[in-house]
Amino acid sequence: MRRVFLGLIKMGLVGIYCLAILLTYIVTEVKAATLSPPSPVSPLNGNSKTKDVNCKVPISWSNVTGNTGYALNVDALGDMVMSQNQTLYSATLTNGSHNWKACTKNASGCGTYSAIQTFTVLAPATLSPPVLTSPTGGTTVTVSTLPGTVTLQWQAVSGATGYELNVDGNQVLITSGSQTTYNATLNAGSHQWYARTKNCADAYGSWTSTTTFTVQQSTLSAPSLSSPSNGSVVTVSTLPGSVSLQWSTISGGNGKYNLEVDTNPVNNVSGTSYTASLNSGSHQWRACTQNTSGVCGPWSGYSTFTVQQSTLSAPSLSSPSNGSVVTVSTLPGSVPLQWSTVSGGNGKYNLEVDTNPINNVSGTSYTASLNSGSHQWRACTQNTSGVCGSWSGYSTFTVQQSTLSAP
Asked: Cα(382)–Cα(54) distance, rounded to whole angstroms?
């Protein structure tokens, strides 16, 4: 070899050029020969390899000093170029038998391949069920309206591609592994749910245990009492009288309200008014709103009012007629005063005879004892509270004694 070198040098420029080519060839051959194939690490010949949570099969080999990369060949489908010092590749493979080999690359290319490793790929393991975080078992969820929105929550499971929920027997499919909430629309009452995890091969794992919870509607605010206004006086024509109790509408409930009138409960009143039958005097009332479950919320404050009967019209004075002369046999004489009936009262009247009060006369007549001369009288009607209404006009008459027989 020394003689070859010396000979080429003696040939001048042509020899030096030939020498450079020879040296390049020698260096290239030396470099390629020094890089042995990598040692297979996993999977090895005859192994069974289960896909990971991403449905990948990790293939790994030892690192060879001086490499510029590797070529990986799986199932003889052609070389896949790996970067320098890369010793792991996650392959997408079907279930069943596969093989692989690898070679080490340097500046001149790839060296010899490692021994072929034949292995079996198995389906990925199913994933553990998620941890259900809300609602937890035995809790009560309060919603503002019914049906209400209840958020079901769980912890994410690594590698999950989705979840399946069962809510009161209804299937709910979650198609994203990153989704960990679901808004269920539920009515009041007891509910249950459980879940399981889907892996990359669309296989589901085991179910969680069943979680049971209760949904209830929040109570609603009290209505505003509008009529009768607090401190007012309500006048009725007869007693007991009809008094209309009125209040504002509260939305979100079942349209019913509970009342308390003078401590007497009046429940399940539809609408926003109720007619109470009340006697004269002071009264108080309050109201609350039922939600869709029929549960009443907080009471309003009390509203107090007074009921009184309206005064009645005056009776018509019928006898003695105005301007008439009444003859009596003796003096003072008995003169019957008569008037018409006025309904709606307590059946009593007040009279005024020559400015003298005569009160609480039952019926429609009164006998007055009067001397001869001019007299006047009037009358008013008592209502059921004993309050007299307006007076009639005065009726005037004259009393005289009848003449006596001759002696």
From this structure: 97
Instruction: Give the SS3 label for residue 374.
Output: strand
Beta strands 281-289 and 324-328, pairing class: unpaired
Q: What's the pLDDT tens digit per position in 61-111?
A: 999 999 999 999 999 999 999 999 999 999 999 999 999 999 999 998 999
DSSP state of 67: -
Is the distance from CB of 315 to CB of 341 less than 8 angstroms? Answer: yes
Sheet of strand 148-154, all strands in order from the earlier edge strand to the far edge: 132-134, 148-154, 181-186
Question: Residue 58: is the preceding peptide bond cis (ω within 30°)?
Answer: no
Q: Are 222 and 288 in contact (CB under 8 A)?
A: yes
Alpha carbons 9 and 20: distance in angstroms, whole number: 11
The tokens of 69 are what?
């990369």
38 in helix, strand or coil?
coil
Burial class (CB in 10 A: 0-12, 13-18, 19+), 16: exposed
Taking 90 as the threshold, does the pLDDT of residue 25 lie above it?
no
Tokens standing for 175? Answer: 């198609």
φ and ψ at 21, to 5 degrees? -60, -40
Tens digits of per-residue pLDDT, 115-125?
999 999 999 99
* pLDDT over 50 (residue 31): no
Q: What is the reported pLDDT for 12?
A: 59
% of the chain at pLDDT higher than 90: 86
- Residues 6+ away with beta carbon under 8 Å from 47: 117, 119, 120
Query: Which residues, other chains included, contact 124 with Cβ-Cβ below 8 Å and sequence gap of 6+?
Result: 50, 51, 52, 53, 55, 199, 200, 201, 203
Q: Answer whether 127's CB lies under 8 Å from 118's CB.
A: no
Q: pTM of the predicted model, to two decimals?
A: 0.61
Residue-wise pLDDT for 335-394, tens only, equals 999 999 999 889 999 999 999 999 999 999 999 999 999 999 999 999 988 999 999 999
Question: Which stretches of 255-394 are assigned E, i.e. beta strand?
Answer: 256-261, 264-270, 273-278, 281-289, 303-309, 317-319, 324-328, 333-339, 345-353, 356-362, 365-370, 373-383
Query: What's 27's DSSP letter?
Result: H
Do 278 and 307 touch, CB atoms closer than 8 A?
yes
Scan for tokens 């994933």, then name that residue.
127
The torsion angle over the Cα atoms of residues 367, 370, 376 and 379, rounded to 10 degrees, is: -20
